[in-house]
Amino acid sequence: MTMTSRERVLAVLEHKVPDRVPIIIGVSNATGIKMKTYQGIKELENIEAPDEYIYHWPELGTAKIDEQTMQRLRSDVRGVRDVHPAETLQRNQQREEHSPFIDSWGSGQTEISPGEWFPGIHPLKEATTIRDLEEYQGWPDMSDPTRIAHVKQAAAALAAENQYAIMATPWLLFPLERAFAMQGMDTFLLNLAVNPDFALALLEKTAQFCKELMGNFLEALAENVDMAGIEPYAQRFAQAQVVNAMDQANPSFAVMIEMHKGFRSRQFRHVERCLELHRVSGVFADLE
After folding, report:
1. Which helix (H) or strand (E) holds 113?
2. How far apart are the first and last CA of the chain?
3. Cα(129)–Cα(136) distance, rounded to whole angstroms?
4. How far is CA 196 from the centre of its chain?
5. How far is 168 from 41, CA to CA, in rounded Å?
6. Burial 100-132, CB ≥16 within 10 A → b, else e
7. Contact 58/92 with Cβ under 8 angstroms?
8. Is 127 helix (H, G, I), strand (E, B) or coil?
9. pLDDT tens digits, the chain, 288 residues: what are they?
10. Hey, is 184 helix, strand or coil?
11. Edge to edge, what strands does the sheet with 227-228 contain?
């Protein structure tokens, strides 16, 4: 019997056999398609749709895939995302052409070649003390309603349609990846080894803001969500300091999401299962 996309995804998450392998593509930055590739797909399939970017963020380079292309690729999941605050979007849209993109945390990207952007703005690169963190003036306002103003309506519309599994994919970067953005990966990892108290304080600080946004995001979703993507790095990272530091984030993101009673399947969808679906999604290349 042919399943709906949502039925197919939930079957796999329940360790049942679906009618075919579910596909997650085009839902988030991690499962996304870069603009040049997206344009090529549209050309091959004779699909006419505008070139738009997820999060309204051209410098990220990830396409916001139109519905016709999503259906052509047989994506079984639709995502609900947050966006940059309105002030951040407006400021960057009005900035001088080719100048760096700066996000609401103060980190950002520089153009290293025409149309190619690299995360090279790290506002806490020289920070080494907890006082440096306390004195930093660029911490974001996670209560800004423009980050999630659209979430409730978007999730409710997908739930009413009841065709696709709904994945919550807020652009949080989560504590570890956010620490990389604030200091640079090499600098933060060095601090993790030689200045662990500072590294832990930075992780705790970023976790505080990330969990605040996640809480607001989950509240806006209400019951209209099937699974959520969270950062797996803390569980996988070889450095024990990272695991220990992330264990101290209470509640952890996994527990925080699991406690949210809104998941329509009434069960927590762990990130590792989401990633498994993403890994097998390569079968989309064999479309008829």
Report:
1. strand 108-113
2. 19
3. 11
4. 27
5. 25
6. bbbbbbbbbbebeeeeebebebbbbeebeeeee
7. no
8. coil
9. 799 999 999 999 889 999 999 999 999 888 999 999 999 999 999 999 999 999 889 999 999 999 999 999 999 999 999 999 999 999 999 999 999 999 999 999 999 999 899 999 999 999 999 999 999 999 999 999 999 999 999 999 999 999 999 998 887 667 788 999 999 999 999 999 999 999 999 988 998 898 888 889 989 998 898 888 765 544 444 344 444 544 544 456 666 666 665 555 544 444 433 333 333 333 323 333
10. coil
11. 77-80, 165-168, 227-228
Helix 185-194 to helix 174-183 angle, to the nearest 10 degrees?
110
Whole-number Å distance between alpha carbons of 22 and 76: 6
Q: How crowded is the C-beta side of 15, counted as CA atoms within 13 Å? A: 2
- What letter represents residue 40's amino acid? G
pTM passes above 0.70: yes
Biggest CA–CA distance in the chain, Å, is: 61
d(Cα 91, Cα 162) in Å, to the nearest integer?
A: 37
Q: Which amino acid is located at 219 in the chain? A: E
Give SS3 for 3. coil
